[in-house]
Amino acid sequence: MTQYKFVFPEDKRVITSRIQVILSTKIIRNTNNMNNIYTIAKECQDYIEQNISFKRNRIHSDRVVFTDYDIVGNIKHLERLLIDFHSAIKGEYPSIATSLKENMDLYDNDPIIHISAITAIIDCICAIEQPLNGKRIFISHSSKDVQIVSNFVDHILCLGIGINRNDIFCTSIEDVAIRNGEDIRKHIQDNIRCADYSFLLISDNYKASEICLNEMGAVWAYDSNVRLYLLPDTNFNSIGWLCDTRKANKITDTVALDLLYKEMCEYYSLPDNFRNWSQQREIFINR
Asked: Distance between CA atoms of 245 and 167, rounded to whole angstroms?
């Protein structure tokens, strides 16, 4: 009876699992570099999927048939892409970059095993770096407080700190809200899940709104750099339990706003123009 022995590359799931452990320690960073890494990784992934294939060979030896594989495709072009990929990730993922380089260097010793490992690395980086569809800033507030919320977006976030309006989700402001026809619940959930920062702008109107309280619960569940601010004419006694587990600041508190400015400029690697910030902060506070 003829016996078959199949020689397969290392299971990609094993490699993927190892890489995901490393990725779980990834720190939050500037998304400009994230986009660059994703673009290069996706180019490698697409090239492998479209231009690299495996050819199965059967090797007969006595009563045993061995099966191995050859790689078909322009490996030299892939190598050039992988060099760029390695350069892109070595700063953010040094351990993964080392593993990638090892598999590239050892490729000729066993092409199947090492191309499998390389592909797994590329797939994992693509998965972790894929840009999210949601906004980077989520603002939860009552629609009855739209005027001060609009001023906060204009003078604090956009003109003061330098956040792009397209990165802000705020339901009551027309140009950064939900477009007609979109699923409101799904859109809000997606933007809460994807947000780098979530602002809860709390007032008596907020406390009286069931929608706002639901948003607050979702924001706390994701815990994405949550910041609580009390709107004017709102005090801790009137808000009660909403602030029991979180520290809130008055939205017109100069010290709290200055801390927010410094934190967000550092987080997003934005230029520090404190003179401009001070002017915009004062315009907001005095309106």
From this structure: 28
Of 64, 276, 29, 19, nearest to 158 (Cα)? 276
Q: Is the pLDDT assigned to residue 30 strictly greater than 50?
A: no
Continuous H helices in the chain: 12-23, 31-51, 75-89, 94-105, 111-129, 146-151, 184-194, 204-207, 210-222, 236-239, 254-267, 274-286
Q: Map residue 146 onto helix, strand or coil.
A: helix
Cα dihedral sign, 147-137-165-250: positive
pLDDT, tens digit, for every residue of 129-174?
766 556 688 898 998 999 999 999 999 999 999 998 888 888 764 4
φ/ψ of residue 139, rounded to 5: -120, 120
Amino acid at 158: C
Query: DSSP per residue over 176-191, as a string?
Result: GSPPTTS-HHHHHHHH
Taking only the tens place, the pLDDT of each residue in 229-259 is 999 888 666 565 555 545 788 999 999 999 9
Q: How many other CB atoms are found less than 10 A from the CB of residue 16?
A: 16
204 SS3 class: helix
The residue extents of the domains of the chain are: 3-129, 137-286
Instruction: Name the average pLDDT for the chain.
Output: 78
- The CATH architecture that domain 137-286 belongs to is 3-Layer(aba) Sandwich (3.40)
What CA–CA distance (Å, rounded) separates 95 from 274?
A: 38
Q: Would you say 41 and 75 are in contact if contact means Cβ atoms under 8 Å apart?
A: no
